[in-house]
Amino acid sequence: MATANKNLSNYDKNALPNAKDFKFGVVVSEWNDKITNGLYQGVFDTLVDCGAQPENIIRWDVPGSFELIFGAKQMHENLNLDAVITIGCVIKGETMHFEFVCEGVTQGIKDLNVKYSVPTIFCVLTDNNEQQSIDRSGGVHGNKGTEAAVAALKMIALNSLAKNK
């Protein structure tokens, strides 16, 4: 496991840009909400810890992970943001649905990164069982939401660097 020996909640705040002037969009899937709310809390707490103003963290809920793409697209087109973070959780079941949803969401979020000049961060757990998702949304492996917030800050810095060249 990639996270077996890593706590997803560990980060060096001093190595990240101060988020006080940044505005974030966060699209959260309502499906597996115990997990996605935990991931959102990791995003929110990390961004605030790094200086973001709570009113500059805009949350929109969508029914499931597949709808994250449309929600993020709407944020890109209608809000002036520095980053969009997509939060979802797909747990493997007995049918091919898992593979179709995971592939579609992954490709859709990749497409948003190609289309827009503001980063879209992928925070979608694709686990084999609920316990793996619990372990990565504030459990024994930390919180993948924290990692997504850190990625957003780093990508904002990269975007700023590229625009100033």
Question: What is the helical fraction, as a range of percent?
Answer: 40-55%
Which shape, going by the Cα principal axes? Answer: globular
- Give the radius of gyration: 15 Å
Tell me the β content. Answer: 15-25%
- Write down the oligomeric state: single chain
Which stretches of 5+ consecutive residues score pLDDT under 50? none
Largest sheet: 4 strands, parallel
Walk across the major sheet and give the strand order: 2-1-3-4
Number of helices: 5
Distance between the termini: 39 Å
Mean pLDDT rating: 92
Number of strands: 6
Structural class: alpha/beta
SSE order, one letter for each helix or strand? EHEHEHEHEEH
Could you describe the 3D structure shown?
- With 165 residues, the protein is an alpha/beta fold.
- Helices cover 44% and strands 21% of the residues.
- The protein has 5 helices and 6 strands.
- It has helices at 33-49, 68-78, 97-115, 130-135, 144-163; strands spanning 24-29, 57-62, 83-91, 120-127, 137-139, 142-143.
- The strands form 2 sheets. A 4-stranded parallel β-sheet has the order 2-1-3-4, sandwiched between helices.
- Strand 3 (83-91), helix 3 (97-115) and strand 4 (120-127) form a beta-alpha-beta unit.
- The longest helix is centred in the C-terminal third of the chain and has 20 residues, at 144-163.
- The chain is globular, with a radius of gyration of 15 Å.
- The N and C termini lie far apart (39 Å).
- The relative contact order is 0.22.
- The mean pLDDT is 92.
